[in-house]
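#structure-requests
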Amino acid sequence: MHSDDLTPPAAVTHTLAAGQCLSLQLRRGDRLWLAQGRLQARPPAQWLGERLWRPVAVWAEGHQGEVQDAGEWQWQALSAATLRLQRRAPLGARLWGWTVGGWARLTARWPGRPARVPSPPGIWPR
């Protein structure tokens, strides 16, 4: 596992001028937030019956959501816009958090259970 897999994902801000286009490869679970302006959003193409369909939506300021369709997303700014992207944590980081969190829950002290006394260094606990 690479050390970068354990760092929390950072938010990335994209600023677009009116008429400018942006294309990004997104994964399912990434979060988007339109902080300012209006955008025309085009999610990845989908099959509808036997035809390829590319939906189009207009996002207004304050629009936010989680990406459900992985693939290439495209936006065109209808006015000056600021789009913020929060990438989903990589699989390694999610699995590591799940493992550590699960271990912490398993070894948690239950009410009424005495605390474990740590053994001195070099002595095996009984």
